[in-house]
Design brief:
The protein is of the alpha+beta class and 344 residues long. Helix content is 23%, strand content 24%.
Length: 344
C-alpha cells in the first residue's frame, strides 16, 4: 500500500476538535492550548513557574507554557478561539499570534505524518545559511489529534504582501536567492522518497486520484518507498510516461515555496525567513523546478497583484531554478497528470 490516510468523520471524535478551536483565550492573561497545555502572561519581573516548559519575554511581560491546570480554569468561560487567530485551514489547522512575539501553529496529526518541528531542526542543523523561524517548543496533543508548534515570530511581510512595492530587480533577486536556497537544500540527497524521519510525504500532486469520500481533515501521505518504487508507482497511475528523474538521488526540497511562505526583509532586498516546512522531503529531482511552473500554490493573490499576471512569481522562480541546474519538465508532467487514472 503506497498511500496512507487517517480515517475521520465529521464529528469531534474523528478530529479531536476543530482546528480553529484548538487555542482559546479565556482572559487577557490566560489561554488554553489543546487538551493538555495552557499559556499564561505575567509581569516580566515575576519568578517563572517551576513547571514551565518554555518562557519568553514580550515587552514588559513574560509568557509561560504550562501543563493544564483545571483548578486555574475553574469558573472561567469557555474562551474565544477567534482572538489572535490569523489563519484557519478548515478542519486541518489554524495559526494564532500570542502576544506580539510568538506564533502558535496547530495542524492535524496522525502517526504517519512528519512533524514540522523535526524538519525545521534538520534544516537548521544541516543548512545554517537557510533562513528559518526559531522553534521554541512543540508537542503532540493525542486527544485532539493535533500538533502544536510554538515559533518565535519573524517580523516581516510575506512575499505576496510585499510584491506590489518591489521593483523588477528586487523580484528577480528574490527569485535568485530562493533558487540558491533550494540548491543548498538539494545538497542532501537520498535514494528514498520520504521525509527526513523516514515517514510518508505530503504531496497530493504526485498521487493518484483520491477516493471521493476521502476526508479533508487528514491529508494523505505517499510512501515512504525507494526512488525506483516511486517511479513504478507513478507509472501505474497514469497512461503517460513519468517525467525523467534519477531514482538513486532524490534531493531534499521544500515543495511549498509560494509567495505566502516566503517572508522578505523590510527593504525588500532579501529573504527574512522561509516558513511552513511540513511538506518538505526527498523528492524526484524534476519536481524542484516543475512544481513552481505547474501549481496554483505559487500564484500571487489578489488584490496584491495585477490580475493579468498572477503567476509572475511562479515564472521567475522556476526560471531561476533552471539557471541553477534543475530540470523543468512542465510539458511531461502535465501530460502525466492529465492522464492519471489510478487510485491513490
Amino acid at each position: 500500500m503506497f498511500c496512507r490516510m487517517a480515517i475521520c468523520s465529521n464529528s469531534k471524535q474523528r478530529n479531536g476538535t476543530a482546528g480553529g478551536q484548538s487555542v482559546k483565550q479565556l482572559k487577557p492573561q490566560l489561554w488554553t492550548l489543546g487538551s493538555s497545555m495552557i499559556c499564561t502572561k505575567a509581569d516580566a519581573h515575576d519568578v517563572a513557574p517551576l513547571n514551565s516548559f518554555i518562557s519568553w519575554q514580550d515587552g514588559n511581560d513574560t509568557f509561560h507554557i504550562l501543563p493544564r491546570d483545571d483548578a486555574l480554569l475553574a469558573d472561567l468561560n469557555e474562551g474565544d478561539s477567534a482572538i489572535g487567530r490569523i489563519q484557519e485551514c478548515g478542519s486541518g489547522g489554524a495559526v494564532w499570534i500570542i502576544g506580539n512575539e510568538v506564533i502558535c501553529k496547530v495542524k492535524s496529526w496522525n502517526e504517519e505524518r512528519q512533524l514540522e518541528a523535526t524538519t525545521i531542526e534538520f534544516v537548521r542543523d544541516n543548512f545554517p545559511s537557510v533562513p528559518l523561524p526559531e522553534v521554541l517548543y512543540s508537542w503532540i496533543d493525542r486527544p485532539f489529534k493535533r500538533t502544536f508548534l510554538i515559533l518565535k515570530r519573524v517580523h516581516a511581510r510575506t512575499l505576496n504582501i510585499a510584491w506590489p512595492s518591489l521593483s523588477l530587480s528586487q523580484r528577480q533577486n528574490l527569485a535568485n536567492e530562493m533558487a540558491g536556497h533550494c540548491l543548498t537544500l538539494a545538497g542532501k540527497k537520498s535514494s528514498r522518497f520520504e521525509s527526513v524521519s523516514g515517514r510518508g510525504v505530503l504531496e497530493h500532486w504526485l498521487m493518484g486520484k483520491l477516493p471521493a469520500d476521502h476526508p479533508s481533515c487528514m491529508p494523505m501521505t505517499l510512501g515512504p518507498f525507494s526512488g525506483l518504487e516511486m517511479k513504478e508507482y507513478m507509472s501505474k497511475i497514469s497512461g503517460a510516461p513519468v517525467p525523467d528523474f534519477d531514482v538513486d538521488a532524490l534531493p531534499f526540497f521544500h515543495c511549498d515555496l509560494g509567495p505566502t511562505n516566503i517572508l522578505v526583509s523590510n527593504d525588500g532586498d532579501s529573504v527574512a525567513a522561509i516558513i511552513d516546512w511540513e511538506s518538505s522531503a526527498y523528492f524526484p529531482d524534476f519536481w524542484v523546478a516543475t512544481r513552481p511552473a505547474t501549481n496554483w500554490a505559487y500564484r500571487l493573490s489578489e488584490p496584491n497583484v495585477d490580475p493579468q499576471d498572477p503567476y509572475e512569481w511562479a515564472k521567475l522562480f522556476s526560471s531561476a531554478l533552471v539557471v541553477k541546474g534543475f530540470s523543468c519538465q512542465e510539458e511531461a508532467f502535465r501530460k502525466w497528470k492529465d492522464t492519471k487514472t489510478g487510485p491513490a
